[in-house]
Each structure stands twice: as structure tokens, then as C-alpha cells.
Amino acid sequence: MGARNSKRDHDKEGETEKFGRDQQIRLLFNGCNDEKAEITKDKVKELWHGYLTQKLLAVILSVLYERKRLYVLFEEFINFYWDSCEISTEHEAELMLKLVNAIGNETVNEKWLLILISEFIQSFFKIFETENDCAFNDWVKFGSLHDEPLNLAEYFLNNMDDTDDKHITVDALNSLFTNNALFRILCHHVYKTLFNTISLEKKIAYFPDVVIRSNYKPILTLSELLFLQWHLGQKSTCKWRLLFSIDNDGESWSSFLKTILGQGPTVIVIQDSNGFKFGAYASQSWNTNPNFYGDENSFIYTLHPKMNVFESSGYNKNFQYINTGQATLPNGLAMGGVHNYWGLFLSSDFGNGLVSESCTTYKNYIKLSSEKEFTVDKLQVWGVGAPDPTPEELGERTSILDKDPSAAVMLELAGRKLHSTEIRQIKHEQ
Known about the structure:
Layout: H1 2-26, E1 38-40, H2 41-48, H3 54-64, E2 71-73, H4 74-85, H5 89-103, H6 110-130, H7 134-141, H8 150-158, H9 170-178, H10 181-194, E3 210-211, H11 222-232, E4 240-245, H12 246-249, H13 253-260, E5 266-272, E6 277-282, E7 289-293, E8 299-304, E9 308-311, E10 320-323, E11 332-338, E12 341-347, E13 352-354, E14 373-383, H14 400-403, H15 405-413, H16 419-429
Parallel strand pairs: 3-4
Antiparallel strand pairs: 1-2, 4-14, 5-6, 5-14, 6-8, 7-10, 8-9, 10-11, 11-12, 12-13, 13-14
Helix pairs in contact: 3-5, 5-6, 5-9, 6-8, 6-10
């Protein structure tokens, strides 16, 4: 009896939800209640053209108004919506196959699928521009570009189950959605904006709020930013704060340390002299330590020429390392690997870095740069979480070492023993 009531309640909830979404769609046509009302192609084109690229608009309309129909019935219009984003990945895959077929003029292969995915990504950005999203506009204002999102499209495509390039199946397209949560949600956002149901959804922060200093020069494109923000997920709920930029702060190891130590979780973005773009997410604050530390929430990534993310393998805990002023240990910042066989290493001899062919700390790792030894062209570090409490906030007396970490390096090089550092280390170990 209880099970029957539970099913009945669930069915009622489903009916209520469907009614609410259908009502939102009706508002596009002045609250139309006639299921047999004719929805013309010109009217829909007028409603949608501000949200979609010209190519994606033409393709979706050609599928909705198949066989060159001039109108569809309102009930057909609503059914198209439910197939696009509300029923199952199988329905979405069947619709995607029709769209690929339309964009490729009856040719269904990975080339045309890649173009279609790119059109969805660009339309997603266009929606945020049209809707005047504050965070999105801030990144655009500070120089992040509407790039050709082929790298992100290829990332989605590479996660699709293997298929014959000359014959893409519904099953393969189903895996495109099931293996790429970001792409599926991105498509849903596009469709729900078109059909006026997006206001019923929980808001997702696709683009983080940002705090940028003057004279900022961007490294990240919009698709790269979207990619990183998605993989950070709930790991980052704070504004992105630009802590260090080589363009603004120069090639100074002491300045680098001063700006990044104790700032909470960070994203490091590097572009080398060969144009390769890559970096890492450090889930814990950077604090000088002769040993590796950190946790499995950290990851390493690449953005160009290919996008990828390498998460913890569980093999070891060599996540974060940063050291300075040592005669017998490597001086620099590292993530993953072991001494001299790093996943990623930035030398204290500022401007130089190392990567390895393999790194057991992060699964499926591939060499981040084209060469094992690379030269840094651009470098930024972003604070993406709450900074550590200051000594004042903890009710402690401040030290010159807090105000200027580079002072510790100079004192050590001068042979001065840093008793306060030893005391802090003991407290930390306790």
C-alpha cells in the first residue's frame, strides 16, 4: 500500500513538473493553450536568433520543421523540447543524430559532429552575452576571448565511445552525453533558454566571479575558463583572485612566494615558449615544506594544444611541494611525481620548468609540454578559495617572515638560524 502511494505521489510530482515547464513554453506564445495551434518557422526564428549562432539556428529549425514545413503544431513544438533535454540521454542522442545529419547534408561523421559541438559551445557563450551575465561580462571585459572552441569540442568528442568515423550511431552519441556531463548540461542550458524553462533550473556558476588587478593581461579563453571552472566544481566556491602574473609582477621568485603563500587553494596557469598551455589545481595553501603534502582533490591539466585533466591516481600522496633556499633539496614549486621526476616543476631559477614523460601521482598523465625542459612565457596564479587566516585574525603577533617570505630566504643564506620557523614547524607537527 505504502509503495503504491509513493509511486502515485511521484507520478503527481512528475505531472506537476511537466505542467510547470509546459506553461513556461506557452508564455513564448502569449500563453497559448491550443495544442493544435500552428507555430510558424518565422516566429520561432525571431524568438531564437539572439541566442544561437546562425549555423546552429538553421540546423535546429531544419530538424524541427522537417521536410521544409512552414509550421508545426504546438504539441509538436513541446514534444521537441522534451526530447531535447528532459526525458533521457537516448532521446537526446537520437535528436543529436538528426542534427548531425542536417549540418552534414546527409553525411554523418566525426568531422560534422565536431562542428556541431562547437556550434553548441559558441551558442552557449552567446546566451550569456545576450542575457548580460555579470561574471561572464567581467571576464570578457578583462580580455578573455570568444575563441573557436575546437579544443573543448575535441575533448568532448574524445570522451565518446569509439565509433567508425564514417558511421556514427545513436549508441555512440548516447555515450557523448553520458561520458561528458558538462556537454550534456551545456546543451540543456541552450535548449532550456530557447524554450523559456531555464528560470526553473538551479543556477550554476559556469563562470566564476573575479577580482583582477589593473593592467591584467589574459591567458585563459572563455572555453578554457569554462573547462577549468567545471572541473573545480564545488572545490571552488569563492571569487577567483589574481595573486600573481608574470606580466605584472615580473620574473621574481621572491615576489612569487610573497603573493601565493598562505592564499588557500590555487589554480596555476602556464604558457610555455612553444605555445603549450597547462597547469595545476592545488587544493591546499602553498606553504614552504621540504616534504610533499596536499590531498587527492588536486589535479594537473592541459589546455592547448589539447584539453585534458589528470586526477589523483591514489598511487602516492606527492601532490604539492614548494621549497626555497635549500642546499640539498630542490628549490621550486612542484606537483606530482618525485624529486627530479616531477609531474610539473617550476624552478626557483625563475622562468624555467620541468615535466616528465610519466607521473604516477596523477592517472593517465601525459607530458604537459612539448619538451621535458620548458621556458615559461606566461604565468598566472589564481586564488580560488579562502586564504589562510592571518596572524592578526588568529590573535598572534606578526613576524617579519610573515610580511616578507623572501626575508627568510635571505636570512638563511646569510647563515642566520630561524628559530621562529622551527617553533612553527613543531606546532604544525603537533
